[in-house]
Design brief:
binds fe (ii) ion; 4 domains; 5-stranded mixed β-sheet; kinase; Nucleotidyltransferase, domain 5; alpha+beta; iron ion binding; tRNA processing; Phosphorylase Kinase, domain 1; binds threonylcarbamoyladenylate; globular; metalloendopeptidase activity
């Protein structure tokens, strides 16, 4: 079978022919390079108009035999560019009298790594221009496990280089300069599975304006931004219990990012795969490869329904070409000792939690994060208990060793004992700590522990105390919060909303029927806390991210 792919979402006009029998991909690309500054949408569209017909013609030249289908990138991307690609694809499919396949560009960035690696169901990190997110396939969709709260990672780097006066693409220039730079620290922002670049980028611009050598700024940026992506990828592996990671997207061409991910995976015994650069940056090869899988699954488009979609999200795609056996999230074991943040050793009554050095991180950044998180966790565990939220009692804090010793709480992770009452208890706990002026930072269903039964004495005081409720068999039970290492003090409603969002995200990621549980969480939060927080969460969700 032979499938044509056409790509032109932003800067790269590209056509490819994928020959499935030989697993051979012929790619022909023509990049738009602005004279100065970033991508100008009108110029980019102009480039597509000229370059797309030419790359299609060249790619088809040495196709050895008939074409079976034409696949094109429907979105996300720049509207005027997408329209030109869409028209070209329709015309070609009609001319060849073959079916049309509409491909999501983001999913293509993920699938190419899976295709080339042979991994069955990896966790996927996409580090591209307009995006940065970690996804896993679950129950017919790609689920977003974590993502940027503001710009894509490539765009973030490009904004900095524009400030310095370098033209698009800035990423390769950052990589080049970083090789000669010394690490300088920048804000490091990971919130649960999500992360943000805006604070880092303004700090980088300020540092440059204040005379920090640009090489050092570039190095600091790489260490910080890629350290965050690697940390989130590791969290996703831990949360899902998977041991395979693939990388996609143009920023994946960066050797330091690939090196960090490889080191992280090696440290935890996971497999790592990054496709070769021609498949990482925008290219029609990945469109053709996914197009062939979709075509084989009968997932084709009527011309009348083939409109482009500039905001096409990867989790909107109904995945037709994978089967349920490949689910990432169900049945993940995520063993205790492989926790992403720390090594946890437990006996009957005590837990010792140690934040070991992460080999992938720059030493100075690693030392800072371990120190900040150890002391922060110790403080917030006590603060939370003070406002009535059950947490483990600490017996020892060893900052140089980044070790906490504490009481062991609960019989089981909430993840393995989900019900509405327990979910509601966590939501009430979150409302209580937010009211006290701090967030948990990572309130997932694995960071809540359920005690199924409590003693008679404890029960006596239970009704009045926060966090205890009757379980189905009538006994009081208690839901503890643990792992406050990413918590911090804040009075910003948006931070509280993000905490709730992380919690809801982890419910969606682990429950087979999540919506009633999510509804229970929100109802309980509205009741116990500030309803504005829930309203803000809706706003956060509605903000588009492909900008
Ligand atoms: C929607 C679509 O058009 C968009 N594609 C895109 O932005 O092109 P992509 O090829 O995936 O990524 C380009 C980005 O990748 C960065 N980049 C390229 N080489 C790099 C390098 N060596 N180090 C860091 N960044 C690099 C560029 O600066 C640019 O921001 C996307 O996938 O988000
Ligand atoms: Fe891309």
């Amino acid at each position: 079978m032979r499938v044509v792919g056409i790509e032109g979402t932003a800067w790269c006009a590209s056509a490819a022919v994928f020959d499935t029998e030989r697993d051979r991909v012929r790619i022909e690309s023509d990049a738009y390079e602005p004279e100065s500054g970033g991508i100008h949408p009108r110029e980019a569209a102009e480039h597509m108009r000229e370059a797309i017909p030419a790359v299609i013609e060249t790619a088809l030249e040495d196709a050895e035999g008939p074409i079976d289908a034409v696949a094109f990138a429907r979105g996300p991307g720049i509207g005027p560019c997408l329209r030109i690609v869409g028209s070209a694809a329709r015309a070609l499919a009609q001319g060849l009298d073959v079916p049309l396949v509409g491909v999501n560009h983001m999913v293509a960035h993920l699938e190419i790594g899976r295709h080339r690696s042979g991994f069955e169901s990896p966790v996927c990190l996409n580090a591209s221009g307009a995006n940065a997110h970690v996804l896993g396939y679950h129950n017919g969709r790609y689920r977003v496990l974590g993502e940027t709260m503001d710009t894509g990672v490539g765009n973030a780097l490009d904004k900095f280089t524009r400030h310095v006066g370098w033209s698009h693409p800035g990423g390769p220039k950052v990589e080049d300069h970083a090789k000669r730079g010394e690490y300088v620290p920048f804000p490091y922002v990971v919130k649960g599975m999500d992360f943000s670049f805006s604070g880092i980028m303004s700090a980088a611009k300020d540092a440059y304006d204040d005379g920090t050598p640009v090489e050092d700024v570039c190095r600091g940026l790489e260490e910080t931004v890629f350290g965050m992506l690697t940390e989130v990828a590791e969290r996703a592996l831990s949360l899902t219990g998977r041991d395979e990671l693939v990388l996609g997207g143009g920023v994946g061409q960066n050797a330091r990012l690939r090196g960090m991910l490889a080191a992280m995976c090696e440290q935890r015994g996971a497999g790592f795969y990054a496709p070769e650069p021609r498949f990482l940056r925008d290219n029609a090869g990945m469109i053709a490869v996914l197009g062939a899988k979709m075509y084989r699954a009968g997932d084709t488009l009527d011309v009348a329904e083939s409109a482009i979609d500039p905001d096409y999200r990867p989790d909107e795609v109904a995945v037709t070409w994978r089967d349920d056996a490949e689910d990432v999230l169900l049945g993940g074991s995520g063993g205790d000792l492989r926790g992403a943040e720390a090594i946890v050793e437990a006996d009957e009554t005590r837990v010792t939690k140690t934040r070991r050095p992460k080999g992938y991180r720059h030493d100075a950044l690693d030392a800072r994060l371990r120190r900040e998180r150890t002391t922060g966790e110790a403080r917030l565990l006590s603060e939370a208990r003070r406002v009535g939220v059950p947490t483990p009692v600490l017996s020892d804090v060893d900052v140089p060793e980044s070790t906490l010793r504490m009481e062991r709480v609960g019989d089981t992770d909430l993840r393995d004992a989900l019900n509405e009452a327990r979910i509601a208890a966590v939501a009430e706990h979150l409302a209580a700590i937010h009211d006290a002026g701090f967030v948990h930072g990572d309130p997932t269903t694995r960071n809540a522990r359920v005690t199924r039964s409590v003693t008679r004495d404890e029960r006596a005081g239970a009704e009045a105390t926060h966090g205890q409720r009757a379980s189905r068999d009538g006994r009081a039970e208690r839901v503890h919060l643990i792992d406050f290492g990413l918590g911090y003090y804040t009075d910003d409603v948006e931070d509280y909303a993000m905490d709730l969002r992380v919690f809801e995200g982890s419910i969606r990621g682990t429950a087979s029927d999540p919506e009633p549980l999510v509804a229970a969480a929100e109802a309980a939060y509205r009741e116990a806390g500030d309803p504005d927080v829930v309203a803000r969460l809706r706003e956060v969700e509605e903000r588009g991210r492909y900008r």
